[in-house]
């Protein structure tokens, strides 16, 4: 955190000054480790084993915050008798379908709810990265649940959890993660001691956690600990995701993502959502508890914002105009389709996949096979010049005279040359004022897309083609100003906020959304950002003039709420858990919830409220159901649906690992998304043969002085000077073993690429003794490329493409490689070296490794057709 | 210079008699540094802004003189950053004023070995034509069972995490209306 989010880290130091203990878990000793109380080096890719060890420590010693757990989590809920745990299935839960490599979730449901899991089969949900929809709300369950408040029932969640993690002992943590058991116990004790009425503990992760084939389950394990210890919805608690870009949270909320519409509404699927009603019902699940009951109003208001006057209740608000998903249309599938010649044109908007995405060579080969490419950026980035200066030009794979891609480079306006909002990592929306005009041809994206849209509509005017209706009907009148006719960002923000269609009055919250076409809302969760006609995101009341919650600095979605689920900061009766941890509470005299933050609860619903039988929607949420977006009002220790690869986290080895999974016969996540494409490959892992060809583990992360793919830092003099060169960090032991010298050159080889780097021999990395053997880990920054003031080979070139099944994010924090002293070969000899390694490792490009590495997954009556690789 | 002014200009005297006994501040200041003024003092305007790098969202103040950014500093009012910036945030002025920035449209013809210049307006028009052609070539009205698809898989887009919410909103709105659904950004990566 001190490296990648330095200014955020001041609050960790502030907490430390007040007595907090800081633990830092990382494969590499960093600036964070230097000031932490305890640093724990870990084998990359084993976080579930470590965190599972903490869960086990809590449950074995009954250290959970019992009152919180009983009232606010699903610990007491009884699960279906058909459920079989991964502990009894050698890594598989019940319901695995080897044909599709995915689960049927019926047997994971709560008892009596076996038919509630929506589609039941999750193969399609994986392709549409459906897990992302739950970012704003939990997955749903129906109606009433069976509970055992004594937590003794063998099928209650508490007991299932206890059995599931029973083997995650301190000894196992040491064996899997390479963390000595005393150090592990120090962490487990400190964490559990910061629990209860008086204390809270906080878990912070950087989003490298998401870049694993089990990334979502890493975070789930953290969530289980935080729920067991009563750390959610309370001040000083929570799980803080440190995201990496100024508005990456915003670009998820108001998405430029294939599977989502604004406010986490799903893009319609051709088979599941044939009509507006079917689409709405798939979101709101009629009859269920919680706050999604209003999905019809959110959906109708979005379509009204899109298609204005053309959108009417009679034509389902132009629902028919929306394009439909048929499967996986994610960025990696797109790139493979580019290589196969299926994509004509590609827009790059402030993003540099030639350096920043996994498998850089595949990215560049894809871009070299387009009809046209539009790059909008501040600088001439690698993704704009791959046809001229890319590594494939050197190897002869891209020949400029034979590369047909037409490239348009359009200079972009910088962040000080336009106005608008960023949403930072805590959902805080902050408005930026414009300082100066952009230079020359540089324009904002707002300008580019507004005028592109205008031009398309002009060219199509008079068209009677049905497919052009959606463009011609589009509500596309934004006021403009200045010599370049810059559209008004405030007007767009007002549309995002939403307004009454007849009066134009801006809405103050999404509670005002209507399903009859009388409101238009661009993104319902942002409704209120323009409440009272005031740009709330532009508020800048000094921190000196308000309390520590600072509610008048910017605006947080939803409803300017700074801590989600903050009903849990009070006890079930509505009283603060303690004076120290007072945050939101029930005021019996006023008959309402009050406190420092906007309560995440119906303001006047008393703690004693109990829903009438069969109540649905918000009415079904009891006065002590703190997790109001969940169908049962509870925080989910166990996830009966919503997570595709299991209701509980389970340790799997990364897709590329030198080690056999010490916990299960199943080696890696059996539901991970793989692509059998000739450009892609995966290095062999046990039980496959030849894993020793790539004996080392490498991991990548950021330097303080550079930013992601380098477009905003390798082009900036002070930053380029501070970190001028690509390098690889190795331990003295590995340097001795591989013959590497400090400040000399090394090259690293994977099944995809060879890259070179200067060697930094340092004890920041240490060999780990794991399961009776020594594992060496190397570390690389991933910022370098071939353009800019400082250049170097790209670490991301080493990775293949394997994705997490829930959100389709690639595993790019860990891979296996070989390392050799000296510089890499150049020209065609470079590809020969890769081919030689592929041959020695038995890699056949385009063939995926065996997904199932046990003889028979649980729940399979007979020998499944899954490949068997124990040979 | 009178004798009194001479003595008062002597740092040790100021250190002994003034408010700076340790001689680390006012006492040690030279006449030259006393006459210097900060770039920020004479700025024509100051814009309240936010750092464009990571997602911490540190507050910034952008100082502008004669239509040029002269300094970018941390905003001491921000409850997030309390005026602080890391090396990247501190380099923001160098970012926006970098001589490496491209300020004109560049165009590479198919099979060309060099860039050419192109008018922005012409580029916009050419891109619009190419979008319409790609839709023409790859449009899918319905699936094999006659259910609507309304889309093209011939157009892709990547980017958004460095852009404004308002921009992402228009991008998604326009692409959706075009039938282009292969829209992605760093949040997937
Ligand atoms: S100043 Fe540094 S920590 Fe703050 S937002 Fe910018 S990059 Fe992040």
What does this molecule look like?
The complex is a heterodimer of chains A (871) and B (189). Chain A is an alpha/beta fold and 871 residues long. Chain A has a domain at 673-841: Barwin-like endoglucanases, CATH 2.40.40. Chain A is built from 23 helices and 30 strands. In chain A, strands 23-25-24-30-22-28 form a six-stranded mixed sheet. A three-stranded parallel sheet of chain A has the order 9-10-11, with no helix packed on it. In chain A, helix 3 (47-60) packs antiparallel against helix 7 (170-177), helix 3 packs across helix 8 (181-193) and helix 13 (331-339) packs across helix 15 (360-367). Chain A is globular. Chain B is α+β, with helices and mostly antiparallel strands and 189 residues long. Chain B folds into three domains: 3-35, no CATH class; 39-96, Single Sheet (N-terminal domain of TfIIb); 119-188, no CATH class. Chain B contains seven helices and eight strands; from the N terminus they run αααβββααββαββαβ. Chain B has a three-stranded antiparallel sheet with strand order 1-2-3. In chain B, strand 2 and strand 3 (68-74) form a beta hairpin. The longest helix of chain B has 19 residues, at 120-138. The mean pLDDT of chain B is 93. Chains A and B meet through helix 10, helix 13, strand 9, strand 10 and helix 16 of A and strand 1, strand 2, strand 3, helix 4 and helix 5 of B. Strand 9 of chain A pairs parallel with strand 7 (148-158) of chain B, so a sheet runs across the interface. Iron/sulfur cluster sits between chains B (51, 53-54, 56-58, 81, 85-86, 88-89) and A (5-8). Iron/sulfur cluster (SF4) sits between chains B (51, 53-54, 56-58, 81, 85-86, 88-89) and A (5-8).
